[in-house]
Amino acid sequence: MLGPPMGACQVLWSTIVAVCELKPSLTSTYYQEALGQVADCMQALFQLQPQRVWCYGVVGGGSSLEVLLFQRQVPGTAMFSIKRSGLLPFSCCAGSDGLELLASLLQATHEQLGFMPAEMKPGFPVQKGDTVWQVEPEAVLQADVRSTGSCVYSVHCHAHDGVSQQGTLLGAPPSFRAVLKGGVGTHDEADILQRLNEADIPGVPDLWHRGHMPSSQTPYFIITPLGSPLSFASSSKEMLTATRDVAVTLSHMHASCQVLHYDVAPANIVVDEQGQAVLIDFHLAKQQLQGAMYLPSPGGRAAFMPISRLDDRPAPLCALRSLSGELESLLYTLVYWACEGTLHWGHALGYPAAAALKYDAMHRLFEDKVLARCRKPELVPAITQLRNLFFFPDYSTRVQPDDFIAVCEQYMPKA
């Protein structure tokens, strides 16, 4: 089977809806485009059908596809979470056309689609000092099809039987929820997190444990807190507070450890139980070593990437890997929250086109493109002033975190 016909198709049943977006291949760029287009359809579907709790999406290309389970997060809103099956071969349904292939996948159970690998289902023990902890999976948060090949799970950790190895009774077994990330490429990410923890950087995950899966020896690490993403229903104050918190974190990371995140985006910011924003997903993060040479690889999501890393025009390496670029991504994140995702700066575009759209919207057509779509009028003054830092009189790659943070605090909404 060569694969289904190109284009998008929609399959409807009385209880099942699936949207399929097919690309020539599932490279990182095509994958992000297809995922963004399917997510846009799902958001519209949840708005039109407030009673719908879940639906399927499929992205496919070349000889592979991935099934996505979209579940409504908050009743009455279009906010959803995504569970991913991981990459599946078209060959598993050889002889089917595109619609039959999709139908056969939708008749499978969640476990058959691979949402929870067999290795994770029973859980496994972890030795921490004198205490043995049991790590039990709850759900797949992300199954990554990019080059890292990593998977992210929410897990429940509890002290085994409440007894230490020496037999001392510990009372009621302590327990907590956390995030486990496993995959071949997680070593470097764990190293970065360990370095940030040792420097006591605020607003980054705590690296609780790192090791190897008992059966496959796949490397993994466990971090806290689990956290919750901001939704479009969050208040203006919560959105701008999270923006300020992450700006503080980025500033400390760079000043103390010379680390840049390279993937600042709404999906990589969560809020802990105390309301503190936490920056997550450091798989692209790099420590900027003095005198080292770095390739100007874009990486990250085009919709939130700074123009200096998107544009195909020549730029000095210092601009491509600057703290100002991290803060610029944070501005686009705030705009995304305030406009409830209605601005599309990179879902179906190459990097230069996304750069041109951002420059056009933020520099020349700000009121028509951004403020006209803002659903949080209390954030307009802050967004306007932050925009001015980066775009007036000319586009700047030298914005300082103190100036960014000062704007957030000066224009913080009262509620």
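The above is record 1. Record 2 follows with the same two-line structure.
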Amino acid sequence: MERYMKKQKITVTGIEVKYYEKEDITFISLTDIARKFNANTDVVIQNWLRTADTLDYLGLWETMYNPNFNEEAFKEFRIQAGSGGFFLSPKQWIEKTGALGMESSTGRGGGTYAHRDIALEFCSSLSAAFRLYMVKEFQRLKEDEAERKGLTWNVYRLMAKANYLVHTEAVRENKVPMIDWHTKKEAIHQASEADLINMVVFGCTAKQWRAMNPELKGNIRDHASALELLVLANMEILNTKLLEDKMDKQARFVHLQATAAHQLSLLANAPAIKRLEERVRGSRGEDG
């Protein structure tokens, strides 16, 4: 286990339980869980590990998720399970079988951690009620996280909408005769400039997108990724400046298209953007 991996805490029935995320997988402290029931946490964990039911569960879990699981070593442990002289520590289990579902270290910040599936099985062996409270607390955390992720996407969407007001004003003042302000004639100009931005960011107009996605609610920008919304907001500001500079539409399109393509390519590989996109997909319930 990486001892200095950033750990977080949850409180379950008054007990602080540490956990950390490793490659988007939650590992929970068995040591903290055991402490609720006995100050001698090593004994609690070892007594759990030595039973046949526990080894059957761990063996099945590792067989499902660990292609390098040492089944021969597992079988040796399983034969001895439950016998009076049988002793098994987390460290022995990990080293002998190559287990991935459990991690253990000693010293400051150490302890035994297990994949969430295994940690909940450990809880069940100690207290069904405690397991239920643990599940409830992690569910609350996931819901809070999803809400925060959705909020991040909403910030980009609101930013794009705010920029749109600046953009529409620039279109009005630079493309629309004053006599046509706030009329259907202005709306034609505004739609044309909005589609100019849509074309350089999404590669299609709002009407074309709607024809391709008749089953979706909302508009093209409501279904944009966080990256696309970020670049879209940048293009609205850039187009505002180009309008003020009196650049003709074709020249603006060429300039905006090149800039948008560069930004989309550059930012797509930025770690911060990748993490954001993953979070947004998770909050929307989409596959990666």
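The chain has a mean pLDDT of 85.
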